[in-house]
Amino acid sequence: MILVLVTYDVATSDKSGQKRLRQVAKICVNHGQRVQKSVFECWLPHQDLVRLRQQLLDVIEPAQDSLRFYFLGSNWEYKVEHYGKNPSLDMDGPLII
């Protein structure tokens, strides 16, 4: 498993851009935790990361939109500092559904 920070900026000046924004957000919600409006922390095995990347690349318009992946690795605890509300989930803690 690897922690990847996914960030995006989708041009929303027309209806197709607004649709792309909703699609990108939905894909990211299905793979990670939203930590800011267009920033997601995704704790994924490699094959899920490959799938996530391809799904997002299939949606965005590279001439108008921006998509970034920051690979924080497995020792992410020492690379992320958070202050304020909405702290990140404890990825090693219990999962309660």
Characterise this structure.
The protein is globular and about 40 Å long. The chain is built from 2 helices and 4 strands, in the order E-H-E-E-H-E. By secondary structure, it is an alpha+beta fold. The protein has a 4-stranded antiparallel sheet with strand order 2-3-1-4. The mean pLDDT is 87. It has one domain (2-77): Alpha-Beta Plaits (2-Layer Sandwich).
Helix/strand/pairing category: alpha+beta
- The low-pLDDT segments are none
Please give the domain count.
1
- By CATH, the architecture is named 2-Layer Sandwich
Work out the helix count: 2
Rounded Rg: 14 Å
Query: What is the mean pLDDT?
Result: 87
Can you tell me the overall shape? globular
How big a fraction of the residues is strand?
Answer: 25-35%
Number of strands: 4
Distance between the termini: 21 Å
CATH topology value: Alpha-Beta Plaits
Query: Which sheet architecture does the biggest sheet show?
Result: 4 strands, antiparallel
Across the major sheet, the strand order is 2-3-1-4
